[in-house]
Amino acid sequence: MPELPEVAALVADLRERLVGRTIARVDVLVVSALKTFDPPVTALAGRTITDVTRHGKWLDLATDDGLHLLVHLARAGWLRWRSAAPKPTKPGRGPLAARLVLDDGSGFDLTEAGTAKRLAIHLVHDPDEIDAVRTLGLDPMSDAFTAEAFDRILDAAGRARIKGVLRDQRRIAGIGNAYSDEILHAARMSPYKPADMPAADRERLYAAVRTTLAEAVERASGRPASELKSEKREALRVHGRAGSPCPVCGDTIRHVEFVDSTFEYCPTCQTGGRVLADRVRSRLVK
């Protein structure tokens, strides 16, 4: 899933390519991807793109008439830049969900792999019309995300497990499964640790959030969309690396699987050597 660093890089790349350009049309090939109907996407034809920004993991293309095309790539979505005019494509063929075509034929395609179609496209007058955008928590790369603000987030979360708190978009916007694993590894903290932790742990975790994301944003900066997925995979230290040695201590990175998600961690660095139960496999053994 694209998270804050990758979306920030997509924004920078698209802003350079799109601002000042005119939209010829937007084609939606997977009807379920389009979550709004008024205004229709045909209203974008002839409009000029004035800015490209983000809200957490949401992409936001603003136009000169005040419309905003917002895209959430979800778990398996991606954006592919296309420099030439597209060939005609029938709806339902392959992973293509939608495409934006500029007046010279270039533009980008939105794709989604797999069968669980969660990619979301909204066309609105104000991003806050979308509940998931309006209720986003603090952006961890913003000036407002101070140590004091982080303390308030943890206080409000109480005994909730910190892994879930970091991923909760209504608390902190932009962190997903991969970077929450990386942050907790950098902080040497168990994913199951309660949010109401001592001050010293809070300070260590806050520093890990800021540093881990800043480093990821810097690595992704300036890269085209085609390189972002591979760059992310290569840079991750624990997420997606179950069975590999921890780059810090050499212990084997472990894997915990839930019904619809997984996470990875290092027992030596994060749980005092304790191996956490794999909920799915443990249930199958009983």
From TrEMBL:
Cofactor: Zn(2+)
Record-level Gene Ontology MF annotations: 8-oxo-7,8-dihydroguanine DNA N-glycosylase activity; damaged DNA binding; DNA-(apurinic or apyrimidinic site) endonuclease activity; lyase activity; zinc ion binding
Record SUPFAM superfamilies: Glucocorticoid receptor-like (DNA-binding domain), N-terminal domain of MutM-like DNA repair proteins, S13-like H2TH domain
Family: Belongs to the FPG family.
Protein's name in the database: Fpg/Nei family DNA glycosylase
CDD domains to which the protein is assigned, alphabetical: BaFpgNei_N_1
Keyword Lyase tagged: yes
Matches recorded under PROSITE patterns: FPG_CAT (PS51068), ZF_FPG_2 (PS51066)
Record's catalysed reaction(s): Hydrolysis of DNA containing ring-opened 7-methylguanine residues, releasing 2,6-diamino-4-hydroxy-5-(N-methyl)formamidopyrimidine
Any one Gene Ontology BP term: base-excision repair
All residue ranges annotated as the Formamidopyrimidine-DNA glycosylase catalytic domain in the record: 2-109
Native source organism of the sequence: Pseudoclavibacter chungangensis
Transmembrane regions: none
Residue ranges of every copy of the FPG-type domain listed in the record: 237-271
Keywords: DNA damage, DNA repair, DNA-binding, Glycosidase, Hydrolase, Lyase, Metal-binding, Multifunctional enzyme, Zinc, Zinc-finger
Taxonomic classification: Bacteria, Bacillati, Actinomycetota, Actinomycetes, Micrococcales
Pfam families: Fapy_DNA_glyco, H2TH, zf-FPG_IleRS
Protein origin, superkingdom: Bacteria
